[in-house]
Amino acid sequence: MQGQLKLKAARVLCVGAGGLGSPLAMYLAAAGVGTLGIVDFDVVDASNLHRQVIHFTQDVGRPKLASAEEKVHGINPNVTVRKFETRLTSANALEIFKDFHVVVDGTDNFPTRYLINDACVLSGKPNVYGSIFRFEGQASIFAAPKTTAQEAGPCYRCVYPEPPPPGMVPSCAEGGVLGILPGLVGLIQATETIKLITGLGEPLIGRLLLVDALAMRFREMKLRKNPDCPICGTNRTITKLIDYERFCGLGATAGRPEKSTEKPDTMPNALPEMTVEELKSKLDAKENLFVLDVREPHEYQICNLGDYGAKLIPMGDVQKRQQELDPEQHIVVHCRSGVRSAKVVDFLRQQGFEKVQNLAGGILAWADRIDKTMPKY
Fold this sequence. Notes:
- Helix content is 32%, strand content 17%.
- By secondary structure, it is an alpha/beta fold.
């Protein structure tokens, strides 16, 4: 009874009424969550019905919010549905988030993911994260605030310090997704939301759940807070919401209100680069190369170039460990997508390392063009 009362008193915000938002809204309503907020500005499209199961054929062309509200009330007429028919932006996110206890990320684009993360950190709300692509999914709880029962958890930026290059990771609509997968990951998010509300079980704080639908295999990665994280670390450099389109390399969008005076996190210009094809050729030829991986240890566990002798020194440790590097050796630096590694290359060149190059596209490019069996994240 106590758990049910907590659910009735809870206010949960679901950002998105699509593939992930569909099972979220339906099961949270069925569970008895008292107030369900939904943010979406799109209309129902016939091509999405295979994965957005809250919408039916007769809903095509209707606003998703109207369709979702109807189904939620069909399941549980006692749920208060708060509709936000708008694009989530830096200008409105904190105002929308303020009245909710938990925020659930049901989006499929990087600018909004970083926006949700930062808004959750700044407002002290847990971010129940889920993402899907083709046959794989992820789930975790980011930005969980410190309580008497637990320490504050890592945020999305602790795990993914920079977004992938624009266009490298397509959306579900562009790249496709197994229609059942959003239901699977969305149910995990709904489960974690209920656990947060009721205080039951062990929530996915400090853990990243990886779902492989083809193998029907679940893996778990341990996560830790990054003390150098720009928004939740010890010395924070992000104290307000920024322009996330620019941060993700998509450029300023006309008519959007997300204007900011903060500098976007971009790569230094005019740095020497090497393509993954060139690196593979040189490694196969046994050339004297030193491959430096500047990602975090949990990223290295997912995929790495250890078979080629890559050495892991996280970006935050490079300055104090640069004596481990030989300025006379040819060094190729890589990270996930090329942003952090470019900064390390710039730093090393300022320290007198002349034979250092950045791996263009990072290990994501290696997985796309060299080793297609390599896990991506």
